[in-house]
Design a protein that fits this description.
Length: about 425
């Protein structure tokens, strides 16, 4: 049984309006299935959950994760963009919000996603006296940020453990054939995981890219895959009328045509902060091209109701919101009674904090919809490994459909190269002339 349903009743677009687009949706659906059979197309994620689950490599992920848990206090996850955000999204959603209270044996620290020396020095300090391993992730194997981080932290690892033991503590996730990282891994005989050719970075969380760090952090990856497989099945229906994933894709395009230029992914559960970051990258890099695309932004409530809330309510009418509603909390807090009631909160005594949070959500949706901000509500039964798996697949598929409807290629990111070329010229990298 699925744990997801989407409420479009407040999106401002009537059902008969969006269902008119059923033919084009069916065409794209068929095209995606055809492309997924071609290893040169980036549609390998489409049936990946059911294909990859329990494969030989999947089992190797679990074995390596167990080893990391047994010998490492910290796993350094080195990667950027699609080679990092998915793992972080899942890990932060499912572990304690307070780092020091987290009971997992192996803590995950992310590096190689920026070029800040201060950040690197902070991580070096945090590693002091701790046992650690490294999982370096890069599909191209040539991305500068993770390559520099790997050079720095590999040296630290080798100095601490010696060459041989360091080698046993390095896990490389990269292309099966190409790239400097692949070459390095082969030369040094590091344990290596392959990113399938036909799965692009931002669609790769359910490959070793995401699964190894997630498993090493102590999360049951079988549950994630179970959820993803449920979504793979549920959203395989080509009929727009029956497929909420495709309805979401169509509606966000209709809102875009209607003048909305920003989609805010929002939540009242701060643990999904990095899930929103992952979603921003997924849609931003997939759709923002050829002068088109909704700008994907995010907000966490109630925190941001005290900052962005004012703009959303009364600023330029250029956004709609997609809200992630986790229906049942994993734990709750009861508000106590205070005889003096000096803080005037006794009207809430005996109520659960989740109840107050829910009322805040209902009040927010009403205010925003009344203020001209259409709302799409994604109801998720609970925040669990299984539902995170369901959500990942839901958004991947919605993103591919949405970008195809927008007539842009969801699977490339030509714009990302521009800053790199400029940076390489400025750094005088061989082969790059000013
Ligand atoms: O989604 C993408 O393809 C990108 O965000 C990449 O993941 C990111 O640029 C990192 O690339 P690589 O894995 O090649 O280091």
């Amino acid at each position: 049984m699925s744990n997801l349903n989407v409420d479009f009743s407040k999106c401002g677009i009537e059902k008969n309006e969006y269902l008119k687009h059923f033919e084009v949706v069916e065409d794209v659906h068929i095209e995606l299935i055809e492309k997924s059979k071609d290893s040169n197309e980036f549609v390998g994620w489409l049936d990946l959950p059911s294909k990859y689950f329990n494969s030989t490599e999947y089992k190797k992920i679990k074995e390596c994760a167990n080893k990391i848990q047994s010998d490492s206090d910290i796993l350094l996850v080195i990667g950027i963009g699609g080679s990092y955000l998915g793992a972080r999204a899942v890990i932060e959603a499912l572990h304690s919000s307070v780092y020091s209270a987290d009971k997992s044996k192996t803590k995950i620290i992310y590096v190689g996603n920026n070029l800040s020396p201060e950040y690197v020095n902070d991580v070096v300090q945090a590693l002091g006296g701790k046992d650690f391993s490294i999982n370096v992730i890069s599909k191209s194997g040539t991305t500068t940020e993770p390559a520099i981080a790997f050079r720095i932290f590999r040296e630290l690892l080798e100095n601490k453990y010696g060459l041989n033991e360091a080698r046993e503590r390095i896990y490389v996730t990269t292309d099966g054939e190409k790239g400097a990282l692949k070459h390095l891994a082969k030369t040094e005989k590091y344990q290596t995981f392959v990113i399938p050719d036909n799965v692009g970075g931002r669609f790769s969380v359910l490959t070793p890219v995401g699964l190894l760090p997630i498993a090493a952090s102590g999360i049951d990856i079988d549950e994630i895959m179970k959820g993803a497989i449920a979504s793979e099945k549920k959203y395989s229906d080509k009929s727009l009328e029956n497929n909420e994933c495709y309805q979401y894709a169509v509606i966000r395009n209709l809102l875009y045509e209607d003048g909305k230029s920003i989609e805010m992914l929002e939540t009242f559960e701060p643990k999904v902060h990095f899930f929103i970051e992952w979603w921003k990258q997924l849609f931003g890099e997939s759709e923002g091209k050829d002068g088109k695309g909704l700008f994907p932004a995010g907000a966490e409530f109630t925190t941001d109701l005290h900052s962005l809330g004012q703009y959303i309510q009364e600023g330029q009418r250029l956004m709609f919101e997609t809200m992630l509603n986790f229906e049942e909390p994993n734990s709750d807090v009861t508000i106590g009674m205070d005889e003096d009631d000096l803080d005037k909160l006794n009207y809430l005594a005996g109520k659960q904090l989740s109840y107050v949070n829910k009322k805040a959500m209902e009040g927010t949706i009403k205010a925003h919809v009344d203020g001209g901000v259409p709302n799409i509500l994604i109801n998720v039964k609970q925040l669990t490994a299984e539902t995170i798996g369901e959500l990942i697949y839901f958004f991947e598929k919605a993103c591919a459909m949405s970008a195809e409807l927008l007539e842009v290629n969801p699977f490339n990111q030509p714009g990302v190269e521009k800053y790199k070329t400029n940076m390489f010229e400025l750094l005088e990298k061989p082969g790059y002339k000013k």
